[in-house]
Amino acid sequence: MYAVSDSDAYPSEREAVQRLAPQPRSIRDTGLTDNFLGDLLCKHLHDAGVLDLPRLVERLALTGSVLEEVLAFLRKDGRVEVLGQAGGQGLRYGLTERGRRAARDALARSGYIGAAPFPVSAYRSLLKVQTIHHGRIGISDMRCAFDGVVLADGMLDQLGVALNSGRAIMIYGPAGTGKTYVSSRLIRLFAEAIWLPHAIVINDAVLEIYDPQIHQRLDADQQGSLLLNEGIDRRLLCCKRPLLITGGELGLEQLEVRFDPSTRLYQAPLQLKASNGLFVIDDLGRQRVAAGELLNRWIVPMEERRDFLNLGGGRHCEIPFDLVLVFSTNLNPLELADEAFLRRIGYKLHFNYLDPGHYERIWRQECERLGIPFDPLLLRYVLQGLYEAEGMPLVPCHPRDLLGMALDRQRYLNASGPLSFIDLEWAWRNYFVQLDFLD
């Protein structure tokens, strides 16, 4: 299952998606009502003016046979009229006056104008079929995903076991020890493609799921081939499993369904957009909301593997909670949550400072990446003359930053040749905050 190419999803999973979401051939097959699709099509015509069938197929992501049925329904209702052919290329459709009034009424109820949404009942099944927890990660998978990454002994095994458990993970330790980098790299263990809808509909509320800032679509030609040849519903997009990382900007309101009265659009919560993927809450404890409130939001989803969406007006909807949830913090976890909550998380992995051997491995890697020779004497000076002399801990991000700043100085001075002790000491003095001004 793991480490497959983006275009070659796990075969049994792909077949299950194909059985679950075949191309609809009629309104009934879409799981939507003729009134809902009629209102949506009218909104598209109101937005564009006049459209032919191919353009409607493109806009609503439905087959021509479905749209012909919707158009026949709208023509019978007096909302749509045929405006003739465009250069012999096919019939064009526009709204009648009755249709324009109906479109304005529909827009007053919902501002959504996009692809036809996927029914929430089918979406629940889709999430379960594509669960991120349906496989088993082995040590070879971990070594492949973290090839070239310097980690403390045993950390790969801890991460692999934690991921296999399906439980939430907390990564904690001092700043700069690689927590965010390692967390984001975990997505490499889940490289198969998934299908996700443009939007879903819950009763009469449409929530957009696809977000180009979160979801990475496959190559357009490749995606089209997958959808057409395999007969998968056009309302689904073929994407990589999502990786969503939030930091101090995260607020509780982003974890709930939001309605914008000005646009009359519903915004899906972040965890819903991260479904079937990886959701990293970075810098835990530095959000605008108290850490306890933020953590309490996850108690039910973590324990019951389901989330409850509140759409307002007494409307609620249950959705599978299918993602790998990672908390990352450089604060003491015991100051963020009590023992009862930490037990619910399950795995707490401590990232610490480096020993000299691991630091040297990273230093060598950075020298190779920057195309500069490795000088053991220079490294000894950094370790003994700077770190040891000033009592500074060895942090994984330091080699990249110190070598980069030393090269910045060289370029400024128009100098060439190997880096010198002076270059590294200059970088050191400018990298760390100097407190001697307090004396």
TrEMBL record:
InterPro entries xref list: AAA+_ATPase, P-loop_NTPase
Start and end residues of each stretch annotated as Disordered: 1-23
Residue ranges occupied by any AAA+ ATPase domain in the UniProt entry: 165-351
Domain of life: Bacteria
Protein name: AAA family ATPase
Organism whose genome encodes this protein: Pseudomonas cavernae
